[in-house]
Amino acid sequence: MIFLFTNIILDIAFGTAYWILKKTKNGIYYLVWKDKNPKLLTYNKDIITNLIKKTQEQEQEINLLKKNLEFLKININIKS
Hints:
Order of helices and strands: HH
Radius of gyration: 31 Å
Strand content: under 5%
Structural class: mainly alpha
Shape: elongated
Distance between the termini: 98 Å
Number of strands: 0
Number of domains: 2
Helix content: over 70%
Largest sheet: none
Number of helices: 2
């Protein structure tokens, strides 16, 4: 009976230790080498670059719209 409990406790302890060490190794590997697929990183960089360009274009459009709104407000106030 004692053998059975000892065996169960050791099995759980070693299983838990193995799981923790495996997850830690994978985490450190990911932090050091990031990703196994370098194509994915360049693909993400391309997407981010395109998003930045679109954001800058949209910001310019917003600024142009603000100027047009201010111009319209001034013209409406002059006419009234």
